[in-house]
Amino acid sequence: MRRMVGRGPSAPVTRLAVGLAALVSTLPAAASAAAEGTAPPATRDPAVVTEWMRVAADTIDAEVDGTPPDRMFWEAYAATAMYNAVTGIEGRYVPYRWREHGPRKASSAAAAAAAAHRLLSHYFPAADAELDAAYTATLARIPDGRAEQEGAAFGRRAADHFVALRAHDGRGDSVSFDKPPVPGIWRPTPPTFGPFSNAWLGRMRPLLLHSPDMFRPGPPPPTTSAPYARDLNEVKAYGARDSTVRTPEQTDTARFFTELDIPAALGDQAVRRQLDIAGTARLYAAVHAAQADGVIAAWDAKLHYGTWRPVTAIHLADQDGNPATEPDPGWEPLLPTPAHPDYLSGHAATAGALTGTLTKLLGDDRIDFTVRSVRGGSTRHYEHAADYDRDVIDARVFAGIHTRTADTVGNRVGHRIADWALTRYFVPVERR
Question: Which pTM value belongs to this model?
Answer without folding.
Answer: 0.91
